[in-house]
Amino acid sequence: MSTILVAVDGSKASDAAVRGIVAWAARKPVETVHLVSVQPRLGGYIGRFIGPRARRCYSREQGLRELAGARGVLEAAGFAHATHIYVGDPVEVLADAAEHLDVDEIVVGIDAGNLLDGVLRRHMVGRLIRRARVPVVVVNATPPRPAPGVLADRLRPTFSG
Fold it and tell me: Which of these, 126, 19, 125, lies nearest to 74 by C-alpha position?
C-alpha cells in the first residue's frame, strides 16, 4: 500500500492527475492520498494594504476552491484522503510536504496541449524532480494525438470518376 501526494491547483491537469490515481489503484493499492494546494505568497504591495489575517483567509479560500474537484473525485471512488493548503514556492513546499507526510511518490499533472502552461509546468516539474527525495510521476492531461499522416491518410476523402 502506498501513500501519494498530489499537487492540486484546480486545473484540468491536476484533475487528470487525480483521475490517474483512481485508475492506477486497480494495479497498485493506495492507502492514502494527500491533496496539496500551494498558494502564492501575497507580499509586496498587497501586504501594505491587506493584513495578515485577510491574506490567510484568502489563501485558504483559494486552496479550498482548488481542492474541491479533486476531493469529489476521490470521495466518489472511496479513497481515504487528506487535504493540505500551504503558502510559498510550489517546488519547495511540495518537496518539504512529501518529506513531512512521508509519502511514497508525488503526482503532478501537466497540460502539454497549452504551450505556455506546458513550458512553465515542465520547468516546475524539473525543479521538483531535482529537489524531491521521492519519485515524481507526471500525468499528461492532453490525450495523445495520432502521428501526422497515420490517421490523416485514412480520413482523406477520395474521389472517383
Answer: 19
